[in-house]
Design goal:
about 65% helix, mainly alpha
Length: about 350
């Protein structure tokens, strides 16, 4: 094995994956929070059911990809505590600002206790992914030491066993055996970080072709779709507690599909598009922070898109796509000004002293 001892040139394919996965995350929320997936209008076996759930399943891998990227990049990066402070400030900025603007505009009524919860988004789990990532961040130096010092065989065997324990066994048992909360936890993010770091350290991404990874992703999606069909069929038969589903962050196929996309995108050569992609990529996380803010979600997303099911199939798909892209673009546009503000305040330089020791 060739150890990746030198810092790679910026991988614009990974930046593109960040953009694509954020679009997927927005799509998940439009379909889920938006009321489409749970609508009585969405009939099992109908064309719209197939299309909507196919889009949902393709997008479901997004969270896994984000955490895999953290490991893939993190194994080569200097661990800076100023980064988590700056990220926390970004989260708090949107958490507080959106709430205060909503109060000022009469969207919600101001409440002091509620305001305090928005001032401490991590402690109050305003954004589950950031809360999990915040915890993971402080384990990263320890994880990196293990990734950097263990031999290839030791890492490979350890990761295989971890996957068996937290992914395969829970699927076989059809339950959250080790309390990973079906992927909504820092434990699962830590597993993904290790896998991403392992791939990055040994350049495993260069050993597999793009076509092979695309085929692997398609096969995984097909299996997950079949799993969805089986679950719904069992419900029709009166089996309400059927839990053998692959549509879960921790399922083996969802893990494989995330790895497939990581490898696939890491091999892309984007040429002149690289600069545009590298500009957009750092702003993507704020798209999540803005549209998933409780006020925005409850007032402007929850149940708002069920009406798309009344449209002809083609118009329904177009409406979903336009909504997802619009939310993404608005988030990027807003965060551009937030980024300019942070630069004017020179926050990065202000907190750089933390990393000097």
């Amino acid at each position: 094995m060739i150890k990746n001892s030198e810092i790679k040139n910026r991988n614009y394919g990974i930046d593109l994956l960040r953009i694509v996965t954020m679009l997927m995350i927005v799509n998940l929320h439009v379909l889920g929070h938006g009321g489409i997936l749970d609508s009585d209008k969405l009939y099992f076996l109908s064309t719209k059911f197939n299309i909507v759930w196919l889009i949902e399943i393709v997008s479901y891998v997004a969270v896994n990809c984000y955490a895999l990227i953290s490991g893939f990049i993190g194994i080569e990066s200097k661990h800076k505590y100023s980064n988590i402070i700056l990220l926390w400030l970004r989260v708090a900025f949107y958490s507080i600002l959106i709430y205060l603007i909503a109060c000022k505009c009469g969207v919600v009524e101001y409440d002091y206790n509620t305001f305090i919860t928005y001032c401490f988004p991590v402690l109050n789990t305003k954004y589950w992914y950031f809360t999990a990532y915040f915890c993971l961040f402080f384990f990263m130096p320890i994880l990196n030491v293990g990734l950097q010092n263990l031999k290839y065989e030791q890492l490979r065997n350890a990761i295989i066993m971890i996957i068996i324990v937290v992914s395969i066994l829970p699927f076989i048992y059809a339950g959250d055996v080790f309390h990973c909360k079906n992927g909504y936890s820092f434990v699962w993010l830590m597993v993904l970080y290790l896998i991403g770091g392992f791939i990055g350290k040994y350049n495993l991404n260069i050993k597999f072709s793009k076509i092979l990874m695309l085929l692997l992703f398609i096969v995984c999606v097909a299996l997950e779709f079949e799993s969805l069909y089986l679950t719904n069929y069992m419900k029709l038969k009166g089996v309400e507690n059927f839990k053998y589903t692959l549509v879960s962050y921790t399922s083996p196929t969802m893990l494989l599909s995330g790895i497939a996309l990581l490898v696939l995108f890491s091999k892309l050569k984007l040429g002149f598009l690289g600069k545009i992609i590298s500009f957009l990529s750092p702003l993507c996380f704020s798209v999540y922070l803005i549209h998933e803010h409780k006020v925005i979600r409850n007032k402007y997303i929850a149940g708002q898109f069920e009406r798309f099911l009344d449209y002809p199939t083609k118009e329904m798909v177009i409406s979903i796509a336009i909504t997802v892209i619009s939310i993404f673009c608005i988030g990027i546009f807003i965060d551009f000004f937030r980024e300019c503000l942070f630069k004017i305040l020179r926050l990065k330089k202000l907190f750089s002293f933390i990393d000097k020791n």
